Hints:
Order of helices and strands: HHHEHEHEHEHEEHEHEHHHHEHHEEH
Shape: globular
Helix content: 25-40%
Number of domains: 1
CATH class: Alpha Beta
Radius of gyration: 21 Å
CATH architecture: Alpha-Beta Complex
Largest sheet: 8 strands, mixed
CATH superfamily: Amidase signature (AS) domain
Structural class: alpha/beta
Oligomer: single chain
Mean pLDDT: 96
Strand order of the largest sheet: 4-6-5-10-11-9-7-8
Low-confidence stretches: none
Amino acid sequence: MMSDLTKLTLAGARDALKAKEITSNELTGAYVKAMEGARGLNAYITETGDKAMEMAKASDAKLAKGEGGALEGLPLGIKDLFATKGTLTTAGSHILDGFVPPYESTVTANLWRDGAVMLGKLNNDEFAMGSSNETSYYGPVINPWRRKDSDAKLVPGGSSGGSSAAVAARLCLAATATDTGGSIRQPAAYTGTVGIKPTYGRCSRWGIIAYASSLDQAGPITRDVRDAAIMLGSMAGYDEKDSTSVDRPVPNYEAALGQSIKGLRVGIPKEYRVDGMPAEIDALWTRGIEWLKAAGAEIVDVSLPNTKYALPTYYIVAPAECSSNLARYDGVRYGLRVEGKDITDLYEKTRAAGFGPEVRRRIMIGTYVLSAGYYDAYYLKAQQVRTLIARDFANAYAKCDVLLTPTAPSAAFGIGEKTSDPLAMYLNDVFTVTVNLAGLPGISVPAGLSSDGLPLGLQLIGKTFDEETLLRAAYALEQAAEFKAEPKTWWTA
């Protein structure tokens, strides 16, 4: 019975709680047990089981009176990039050793306001820098999926690998995540889950540990599209503490699901047919086009000519911003401190010991492109190209309502397979970074299995602040794909 509880979707659990068929105490207890039995996946950095049971008790008291918010009594996992008051928050880095924030991020505060329960803090690539969750100081997260006839451990995608693995392995009902260049959508594709990155400014960034401030955006990873709509409804909203937060009402995203997509114009960007793309990804994309056409959508060919410059642009803009954002970690006020003979020595020793190799690499690249002799040649040029990429999308949206593309250029790969080649690792973001550079919303929906039996995702990209149309199209895609596969539970043995 307990394991059956973890099979419920977020919407299913919500409805069962409201109908008093189950209690939050039972539901949360089942997840605490599942979480404790799956430590081999390394999805959680910090488990907060006792706190979860207290929150569940408070939710049950509200539900008994017929009260409670939109997420009352629903147990969630929180990516360790979100500051949680009184709970260790590390960003997956040694430099934040022992950091317990005295404040709560706006997104998590919104979730607690709506009655959600916190199971713990989920592992992620250090400071969200990585495409595979292998750069975390706390070790790699292991994907619950395995290739057919193989015990090789696979990556769950990054940087939100703890979030995607936990949702796929039924270690939480849903999870918060963040996306700077694909870190919600790519892990979702690798784990057979749904991940939505909303429009830049839709969710507050206040209290989220910054990587690249003009690109970072919070969103959920969930079991299905309905759950994503429910989660986004609670996470989103204007926040006066965040100057990039946009003051617009949050629609009822769930109400958009199930509406017809007849006449919806779906753009297919020809530039996304990249060299060396596996045939099965191309075939899945073609199937996705057919599914949407069968549901009444109109398919339109579009061009995004500056796509080829997206990765180099991203890997100039993001490290430049990270170099600036990570300057605050110096060992003086909080986190790790390595004593030195003077203040400069303390800074150098703390940062050398506190940051891992990938973070150091990106700080070095960022500091270089911002330096006096290279600012105009690199950073300024990248910002100009970014404007052209955004203009490409604006031109495409004159002809269509959403775009359909693959989410990632491959299925999940093995742990250690790409760590020695940073460029091969960066190419995982080829289909996702454009969306962040242009500030658009994007969603990954599981749509099929690779020849190895691993999940593959399709991505839909929407217009600014038009998450409703995006979710409506994603729901239609999900209905057509009928993705029901689940990972076999080998990790509890």
